[in-house]
Amino acid sequence: MQLRYSYRVYPTPSQQAWLARAFGCARVVFNDGLRARREARAEGLPYLSDAELSKRVTAAKLTPGRAWLCEVSSVVLQQALADLNTAYRNFFASISGKRKGRKVAPPRFRSRRDNRQAIRFTANARFKVLDNGRLRLPKIGDLAVRWSRSLPADPTSVTIVKDAAGRYFASFVVTTTDRPLPGTASQVGIDLGLTHFAVLSDATKVAAPKFLRRAAGKLKRLQQDLSPKAKGSNNPTKALVKVARAHARVADTRRDWQHKLSTKLIRENQAVYVEDLCVVGLGRTRLAMSVHDAGWASCTGMLEYKAARYGRTFGKIDRFAPTSQTCSTCGRLDGPKPQNVRSWTCPCGAIHDRDINAAINVLAQGRWDNSNACGAQVRPAFVPAPREEAGIRPHAACSARSVEGISVL
Ligand SMILES: [Zn+2]
Questions:
Q1: Which residues hold their Cβ within 5 A of ligand 1, which is an ion?
Q2: pTM for the whole thing?
Q3: Residue 325 Cα to ligand 1 middle (Å)
Q4: Which of the four, 119, 123, 198, 341, has the lowest number of CB atoms within 10 Å?
Q5: Using alpha carbons only, how large is the chain's radius of gyration in Å?
Q6: CB 140 within 8 A of CB 15
Q7: From CA 147, how far away is CA 400, in angstroms rounded?
Q8: pLDDT tens, 19-63?
């Protein structure tokens, strides 16, 4: 399985300038390629192949207008084109119906004002983690890295990211081996909700942490600094970075919390089943803020890859299964229950807590689905690794520089 490991990096001012140049070159190559394909299309010419675009970049380097592309690693430019090609492929697969899920928009031009700037180095760019713990990038230099944990194996690529808060990260893709945990008999069904983040079939209720809500007051104050009125007195860019930082902190806390919960659930259970919620649909309702704050999608994503990695079963059950309407004791379908009905009594005599009953039904449905469709599990790729994961191949600098509190992107 391929996992992402992210670390904070601290480039010097001159390295920052070189990184800015590399971000700029990658952006120009991406935008040139996009423009060429759009123009070809407008003129009724065939779609420009990946190889053709690559040839054009090589040719452009020889022209006075684009000669500065030679200042950055050619791998960075190739990878920018690869991003463009992937964006097109996803778009084509989406309109032809080959790709499931949300519709993918056609690629858009990148801007220097984008919240996230990124460049990628693959193994053939010969990036290297040095014995002194620095990350050597061709034509950039040796970057200081805060190794919050060790890499479990040699990385196949590294992406350098600058986020809206002005922070730099190195995000490594590492191929890891699966590490099945000792078997356990326990299985669990999970009902995701707004009153509780999750209710388990064993009657455990996990309270919703509401990170965003809690930070709302601070975010609001920072947001006010951004208003046109305050613009004259304050540096708007500084205020913008402050807002981005506050949001980043909320996101970090939420992700950590989700990692802890998902690891616990996978560790304690042989099989984990959840209801496949229509998060996109709910996100458009007035519950949007709470839905966004809960982050169910990223949590179920973690459950999915951790299950694959640790030899557990993970299943999503159909979102239209009437889990909250069915009596888990006798199986009677008792009709829709409004959200405010928290408990109900079935004619068979069973008294149900709405959410626990739903979780028990999720478990039953998941078991049934699993026994009828074996091997239907999908292995997700490129997922962020949990923070607390132990490495098997520590780097020299890890122990000395290890600092708590670095998030996974
Ligand atoms: Zn009943």
A1: 327, 329-330, 332, 346, 348, 350
A2: 0.71
A3: 10
A4: 341
A5: 25
A6: yes
A7: 9
A8: 999 999 999 999 999 999 999 999 999 999 999 999 999 999 999
